């Protein structure tokens, strides 16, 4: 039994007000729902839920939601998401009844092989521990001013944990985890990262613009512009531009391991399907394991 | 009464810092010529703007004062051969900023008298404005205070604007540096001549020379050299860092502020450094090029510290050898200790914008991995020190999170001129200026991409 004293006149009035307020707000909401309603394709939610929600931007869109909208509008293909599990992309394609489309997997690649055991140092940088910070102070301590500074800005910025630093202070990209989002490309102060389809297996791991002995005096594995790779390759595949071997990837189908064989420093490499880096047979071996000291040369 | 008060008011600005000045070692040392180095490294881009284009070939003989690279457009200045010799190579050489830059390397003839044989004398008073601007550009002058902004661009008044005042910056607020001080003391006639030319070119009615009050002897020297009808006044301002920043100097001298993002010419003022105008006074009538400058070489335990006149392109290694500074230095800085650049290599040359060379020999407080950085304790010393009244603490926090765009849009990052006051006072050793320079560089890159 309800105690009669609870249902006093004041309580009834209060409940009445609450009821009236609730009803009036409900009416306003009902009107708003009728006149301010925005129709959204329910498929967007459906597709969005099948996307990885990494919001990495690798597909070229601002995020997964925008990508889902573009998919519905037919302006994108499910295959362009390289982060998603392939099965999910197939499911999206079937759900929307569109072509899967194929985006070849792209990965970030570092155009430098100058770890601290092969690249010489001209000064010791002691300051803010960041590549960008070191680059601001006279270009950092490395003698090669184009080379990797090894302070892991790229590993810090990678949201997928795809970049780790090896024992020689060079970033290593885990191709399975890399989504080609481009954050490392943006963060590197020396612009050493580039995004490439995995089919681009011929790679110049150097950016040094010096020639001959000058280049090798800065780093043991620098491209010294000797042109052997140019001569060994099909016409036009490799050219020497500003003392650096440059690969024309529009002719990528002509690329083979032949190009790297006679490289004296091993600056041009072949990245095989197992994720290993193959050097040419004439490349001088690197025996040193420890980091080089600072030389004031 | 207020006017009387104004008359005796010492020029000052709010905020700023008082570092130890360390100028005693070199302030009394007269300018001396340094020996010519056997090899000069002359970068083609020593100024802000388009790099000059080399017009000499490898193996070609060049005479002191000859043009070796010509200006590429209006925002550029030519480069002249600093010594007679032969061009041994043209290629990429180390620079203080980091990236290798295109440089002309000259092997200097030891037997040469090194007289300047090139010149195109003229009476600047007889030329009109455009011809004068061209003449100034032909001298290859760029601001000798440090920024190396082409002088002719600075002296040309943009269309629709007028200049009423020329401010001559003789503050030299950076610790250690005394080259401008010596120039004012020893070459007041050249300086005044340069000021007269600058007045003539800009059409300004008056000139004010602002000098920090620790260099009162320089002010006396300039006053003594003044002609009675010169519209030039000399005013002492408070000794404080960064008094020599043009925005601070204008506040101190005239009590005016430059609008954010604007230039002094927006309020009718042109600012030039004393070293620049002294060189202009010397070079413009003779029609010669800028081939040498005064550099203060000092630091800790530098026996032969002094102010040396040296050809542009002199490698730092040669200067250290000449002054008997041996290998055990910890740090070499080009410019002043607050805004200068720590050198990555001793093969970097002296350029038009180099005012000092500082050598620190003993291991100071820098440990193996640099200074230990502690978290911000929100003491607000940086806020009290910032002469631009920014909030360095907040910006430093944002920079740590890489929120660079927000620093620019909400916290006026671009008003920061990197004077270093905030880093200097920070008890936690937070490298604030370094953060801001990174932020600016990243923002510039992003804008370039967009």
Automatic annotation (TrEMBL), chain A:
Cofactor annotation comment: Binds 3 [4Fe-4S] clusters.
Location of the region described as Hydrophobic in the Swiss-Prot/TrEMBL record: 1-33
Residues annotated as transmembrane: 12-32
Residues annotated to bind [4Fe-4S] cluster 3: 158, 178, 181, 184
Domain 4Fe-4S ferredoxin-type: 133-168, 169-198
Documented EC number(s): 7.-.-.-
Keyword entries, A-Z: 4Fe-4S, Cell inner membrane, Cell membrane, Electron transport, Iron, Iron-sulfur, Membrane, Metal-binding, Repeat, Translocase, Transmembrane, Transmembrane helix, Transport
Main location group: membrane
UniProt subcellular location: Cell inner membrane
Residues engaged in binding [4Fe-4S] cluster 1: 56, 59, 64, 81
One Pfam family it belongs to: Fer4_7
Domain of life: Bacteria
Protein's GO biological process: electron transport chain
4Fe-4S domain span: 39-98
Enzyme superclass (EC): translocase
Subunit structure: The complex is composed of six subunits: RnfA, RnfB, RnfC, RnfD, RnfE and RnfG.
Protein name stated in the entry: Ion-translocating oxidoreductase complex subunit B
Lineage, uppermost ranks: Bacteria, Pseudomonadati, Pseudomonadota, Gammaproteobacteria, Thiotrichales
UniProtKB/TrEMBL annotation, chain B:
Annotated EC: 7.-.-.-
Residues that coordinate or bind [4Fe-4S] cluster 1: 376, 379, 382, 426
Subcellular location: Cell inner membrane
Main localization category: membrane
Pfam family, one: SLBB
Cofactor-binding details, from the entry: Binds 2 [4Fe-4S] clusters per subunit.
GO molecular function, one term: 4 iron, 4 sulfur cluster binding
InterPro entries according to UniProt: 4Fe4S_Fe-S-bd, 4Fe4S_Fe_S_CS, Ion_transpt_RnfC/RsxC, Nuo51_FMN-bd, Nuo51_FMN-bd_sf, RnfC_N, Soluble_ligand-bd
Binding site for [4Fe-4S] cluster 2: 386, 416, 419, 422
Top class in the EC scheme: translocase
Cofactor: [4Fe-4S] cluster
Keyword terms: 4Fe-4S, Cell inner membrane, Cell membrane, Electron transport, Iron, Iron-sulfur, Membrane, Metal-binding, Repeat, Translocase, Transport
Annotated function: Part of a membrane-bound complex that couples electron transfer with translocation of ions across the membrane.
Entry similarity comment: Belongs to the 4Fe4S bacterial-type ferredoxin family. RnfC subfamily.
Subunit structure: The complex is composed of six subunits: RnfA, RnfB, RnfC, RnfD, RnfE and RnfG.
UniProt xrefs under HAMAP family: RsxC_RnfC
Annotated protein name in UniProt: Ion-translocating oxidoreductase complex subunit C
Protein's organism: Thiothrix caldifontis
């Amino acid at each position: 039994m309800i105690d009669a004293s609870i249902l006093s006149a004041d309580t009834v009035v209060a409940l009445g007000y609450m009821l009236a307020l609730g009803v009036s707000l409900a009416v306003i909401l009902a009107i708003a729902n009728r006149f301010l309603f925005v129709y959204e394709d329910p498929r967007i939610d459906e597709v969005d839920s099948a996307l990885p929600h990494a919001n990495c931007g690798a597909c070229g869109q601002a995020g997964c939601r925008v990508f889902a909208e573009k998919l519905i509008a037919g302006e994108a293909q499910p295959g362009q998401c390289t982060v998603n599990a392939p099965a999910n992309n197939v499911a999206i394609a079937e759900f929307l009844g569109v072509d899967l489309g194929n985006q070849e997997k792209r990965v970030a690649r570092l155009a430098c092989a100058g770890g601290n055991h092969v690249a010489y140092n001209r000064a010791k940088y002691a300051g803010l521990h960041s590549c960008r910070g070191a680059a601001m102070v006279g270009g950092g301590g490395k003698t090669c001013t184009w080379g990797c500074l090894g302070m892991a800005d790229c590993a810090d910025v990678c949201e997928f944990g795809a970049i780790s630093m090896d024992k020689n202070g060079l970033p290593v990209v885990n191709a399975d985890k890399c989504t080609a989002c481009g954050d490392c490309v943006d963060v590197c102060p020396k612009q050493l990262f580039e995004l490439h389809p995995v089919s681009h297996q011929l790679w110049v791991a150097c950016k040094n613009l010096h020639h001959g002995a000058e280049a090798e005096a800065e780093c043991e594995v620098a491209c010294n512009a000797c042109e052997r790779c140019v001569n060994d390759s099909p016409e036009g595949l490799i050219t020497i531009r500003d003392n650096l071997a440059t690969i024309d990837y529009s002719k990528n189908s002509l690329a083979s391991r032949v190009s790297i064989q006679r490289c004296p420093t091993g600056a041009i490499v072949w990245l095989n399907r197992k994720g290993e880096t193959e050097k040419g047979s004439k490349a001088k071996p690197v025996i040193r394991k420890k980091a080089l000291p600072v030389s004031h040369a | 009464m207020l006017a009387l008060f104004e008359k005796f008011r010492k020029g000052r600005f709010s905020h700023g810092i008082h570092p130890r000045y360390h100028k005693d070692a070199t302030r009394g040392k007269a300018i001396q010529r340094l020996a010519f180095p056997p090899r000069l490294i002359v970068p083609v881009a020593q100024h802000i703007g388009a790099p000059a284009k080399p017009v000499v070939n490898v193996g070609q003989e060049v005479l002191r004062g000859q043009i070796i690279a010509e200006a590429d457009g209006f925002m550029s200045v030519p480069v002249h051969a600093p010594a007679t010799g032969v061009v041994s190579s043209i290629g990429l050489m180390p620079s203080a900023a980091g990236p290798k830059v295109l440089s002309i390397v000259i092997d200097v003839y030891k037997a040469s008298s090194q007289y300047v044989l090139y010149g195109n004398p003229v009476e600047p008073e007889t030329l009109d404005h455009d011809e004068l601007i061209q003449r100034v550009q032909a001298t290859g002058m760029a601001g000798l205070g440090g920024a190396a902004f082409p002088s002719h661009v600075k002296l040309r008044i943009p269309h629709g604007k007028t200049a009423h005042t020329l401010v001559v910056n003789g503050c030299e607020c950076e610790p250690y540096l005394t080259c401008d001080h010596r120039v004012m003391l020893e070459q007041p006639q050249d300086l005044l001549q340069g000021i007269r030319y600058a007045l003539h070119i800009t059409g300004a009615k008056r000139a004010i020379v602002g000098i920090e009050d620790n260099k009162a002897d320089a002010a006396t020297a300039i006053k003594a050299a003044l002609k009675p009808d010169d519209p030039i006044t000399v005013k002492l301002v408070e000794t404080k860092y960064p008094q020599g920043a043009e925005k601070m100097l204008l506040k101190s001298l005239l009590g005016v502020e430059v609008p954010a993002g604007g230039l002094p010419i927006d309020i009718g003022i042109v600012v030039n450094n004393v070293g620049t105008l002294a060189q202009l006074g010397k070079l413009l009538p003779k029609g010669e090029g800028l081939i040498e400058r005064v550099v203060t070489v000092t630091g800790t335990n530098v026996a032969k510290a002094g102010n040396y006149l040296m050809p542009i392109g002199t490698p730092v290694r040669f200067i250290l050898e000449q002054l008997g500074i041996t290998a055990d230095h910890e740090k070499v800085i080009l410019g002043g200790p607050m805004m200068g650049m720590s050198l990555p290599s001793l093969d970097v040359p002296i350029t038009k914008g180099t005012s000092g060379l500082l050598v620190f020999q003993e291991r100071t407080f820098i440990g193996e991995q640099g200074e230990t950085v502690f978290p911000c304790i929100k003491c607000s010393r940086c806020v009290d020190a910032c002469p631009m009244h920014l909030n360095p603490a907040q910006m430093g926090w944002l920079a740590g999170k890489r929120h660079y765009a927000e620093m620019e849009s909400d916290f006026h990052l671009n008003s920061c001129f990197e004077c270093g006051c905030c880093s200097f006072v920070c008890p936690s050793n937070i490298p604030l200026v370094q953060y801001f320079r990174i932020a600016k560089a990243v923002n510039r890159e992003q804008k370039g991409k967009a």
